């Protein structure tokens, strides 16, 4: 019985030793490279080169590092501080590469100005990119701390409506009233305030469908939705 226990103990020591040795050997290997994968829409506002530059620490190429020298959390933190990145996950793959999964932010409006910027789907400011221009409505009026929430609220409503998302190309605020420019038509929507947006846009959609059926949409200059339960149209 004692011999059996001794045999098991020796076997356990050997297995632990092999595990430690294997771990140390694995940690002493060079990192083979970085594999970056952009989620959902792919790379738009960033490039693989820009991601690699973000991960370069003290001018040391990541491919020259040992696995034991990697700080994956720090790499994630660096990426997550970037203005274009919604979330990043960095991990060490079995084959020896550093894997990077990146989810870019989603802009829902572009504020005109110098410099201009995007507003993302959380209401935060996002810089323009030299690599890609998002097809989102322009905000042609000034955005301040006082009206930023109102701007975001309207853009968010538009971005979550399949028809409006492709139909509205610009929004503008004038004296607390909102004016929307439509795509492919010289038609302005006079929204008024942001109360009862769903009801107002339902009225507009009904008008739009009827005007298309009558083939006279191009004859209208503006559509006012600011009055209760009615659509007031002005012809060219």
Structure write-up:
The chain is built from 6 helices and 12 strands. The chain folds into 2 domains: about 30-105, Ubiquitin-like (UB roll), CATH 3.10.20; about 105-235, Cell division protein FtsQ/DivIB (Rossmann fold), CATH 3.40.50. A hairpin with a 4-residue loop joins β5 and β6 (about 125). The chain has helices spanning about 1-25, 50-55, 70-80, 150-160, 160-165, 195-215; strands at about 35-40, 85-90, 95-105, 105-110, 115-120, 125, 140, 170-175, 175-180, 190, 220-225, 230-235. The strands form 2 sheets. The protein has a 9-stranded mixed β-sheet with strand order 6-5-4-7-8-9-10-11-12. The N and C termini lie far apart (about 100 Å). It is elongated. The chain is about 35% helix and about 25% strand. It is α/β, with parallel strands linked by helices and about 240 residues long.
Number of helices, counting only DSSP H or I runs of 4 residues or more:
6
The run of helices and strands is: HEHHEEEEEEHHEEEHEE
CATH level 3 topology of the largest domain: Rossmann fold
The domain count comes to 2
Under the CATH scheme, which architecture of the largest domain would be assigned? 3-Layer(aba) Sandwich
| Strand proportion | 25-35%
Low-confidence stretches: 17-30, 57-69
Class by SSE composition: alpha/beta
